[in-house]
């Protein structure tokens, strides 16, 4: 049973609003008394997903379900998709353009961070159709 | 150490001092935001030369105590506004990152 369902629209190429959805989820989890280290894992992994949609997909949507003992976050876009997921998962590999790198993004650590900070990570992508990422974080 | 002590040690400028009593447990240096999110410890001082608005988002989400902008770099107005809204400490210093860290942690 889902306790709380939240939905967000993430705007493409808007770096000023990037992170707002993750911050709101973080604040909701704080109010629910979730342990700080779990909140941090949620906030960081979701922000990485948000930023990927901002940079690569022209935006997308985040669907968040908060359960008693875990959280599930779907990040869904209709962007260009990922040609080679295995390569994209490799630390240090990035297709971010130079102007985005100058902002401090494009280190090729986004997907590896999502794996690091989640208990379960799922990604599916089709070139020309978009990408779906599911992040699951258990509360301790 | 408290944020106010760090400002003193660096002879820095507290551009946004949202909480001068916030404790700093350790430090982290880096400019690539995903490295910072992947590795910066909770309650650290983050030494960087990045000055854009995304620095605030990273500091908030990663629970960083203070952002230390080094080398005399000037934070963007948008970063300052966001830091004020989100209660994030921002310190600027003319020191380079290496010397700022040495001084902050009494190693110089």
Give me the secondary-structure topology.
The complex is a heterodimer of chains A (140) and B (108).
Chain A: E1 4-11, H1 20-31, H2 36-56, E2 59-66, E3 70-77, H3 85-88, H4 98-101, H5 110-117, E4 120-126, E5 130-138
Antiparallel strand pairs in A: 1-2, 2-3, 3-5, 4-5
Helix pairs in contact in A: 1-2, 2-5
Chain B: H1 3-9, E1 13-16, E2 26-29, H2 33-39, E3 44-48, H3 54-61, E4 66-69, H4 77-86, E5 89-92, H5 97-104
Shape of chain B: globular
Computed over alpha carbons, the radius of gyration of chain B is: 12 Å
Q: What is the CATH class of chain B? A: Alpha Beta
- The percent of residues in helical segments of chain A reads 25-40%
- CATH superfamily name of chain A? Histidine kinase-like ATPase, C-terminal domain
Given this structure, which CATH class of chain A is correct? Alpha Beta
The SSE string of chain B, one letter per element, is HEEHEHEHEH
Gap between N and C termini of chain B: 17 Å
């Amino acid at each position: 049973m889902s306790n709380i369902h939240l939905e967000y629209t993430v705007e493409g190429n808007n770096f000023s609003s990037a992170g707002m959805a993750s911050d709101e989820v973080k604040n909701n989890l704080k109010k629910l008394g979730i342990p700080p280290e779990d909140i941090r894992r949620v906030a960081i992994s979701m922000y990485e997903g948000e930023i990927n949609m901002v940079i690569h997909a022209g935006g997308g949507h985040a669907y968040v379900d908060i359960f008693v003992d875990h959280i599930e976050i779907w990040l869904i876009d209709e962007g260009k998709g990922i040609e080679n997921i295995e390569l994209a998962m490799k630390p240090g590999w990035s297709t971010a353009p130079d102007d985005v790198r100058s902002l401090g993004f494009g280190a090729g650590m986004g997907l590896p961070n999502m794996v690091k900070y989640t208990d379960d990570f799922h990604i599916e992508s089709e070139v020309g159709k978009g990408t779906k990422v599911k992040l699951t974080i258990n509360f301790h | 150490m408290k944020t106010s002590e760090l400002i003193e040690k660096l002879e820095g400028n507290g551009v946004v001092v949202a909480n001068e009593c916030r404790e700093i447990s350790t430090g982290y240096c880096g400019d690539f935001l995903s490295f910072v999110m992947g590795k910066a410890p909770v309650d650290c001082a983050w030494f960087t030369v990045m000055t854009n608005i995304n620095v605030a988002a990273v500091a908030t989400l990663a629970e960083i105590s203070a952002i230390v902008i080094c080398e005399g770099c000037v934070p963007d107005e948008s970063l300052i506004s966001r830091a004020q809204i989100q209660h994030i400490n921002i310190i600027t210093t003319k020191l380079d990152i290496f010397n700022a860290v040495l001084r902050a942690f009494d190693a110089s």
